[in-house]
Amino acid sequence: MTLALSVTEAKAGKVESGVDVSDPNKRRLTRGESLRLLSRPLVGVFSSLSEAGWIHSVPVHFLGGEDRVSFLAGAGDVKTRNAQRTGQGTLCVEATDGNSRSFVSVSGPVTVQSPPGAADLRALDAKYSRDDFANGWDDASFGSAVMIVLTIERWIAWTDWD
User: Fold this and answer.
1) Model pTM?
2) What is the pLDDT of residues 61-76, one digit of tens each?
């Protein structure tokens, strides 16, 4: 995993050993911390670029892993159309625990898989303590469902505290 620096941070030498030297209450998350955050039953925000050039961001229930994240969508959804057109997307997850705030943002190429795999739907049910991802589909609903899969090429992961 590579935790990316912004161009400004890299040029200014602002980050040393994962700590923001201008803010001693801010540091990069480790790989393990990042993966643990992605494994929690949190809602992520998926962002894609619309045809008109604006950012389309929507909440999603997702599965996270070492090299990819995936989530359920409708075949005709704006996020699906954007993903198919651009082939790129970003997912951001944030958690606040007490006075500590952490986030992971992952970006990379996306693919659209149709139909969604049964194992992925069961995994979504397990992660979010639900039973409606894998069950209760009629043929028309299942036929219009897809899994958007983002292959992680860029990680940005930080925590800060008061």
Assistant:
1) 0.84
2) 999 989 999 999 999 9
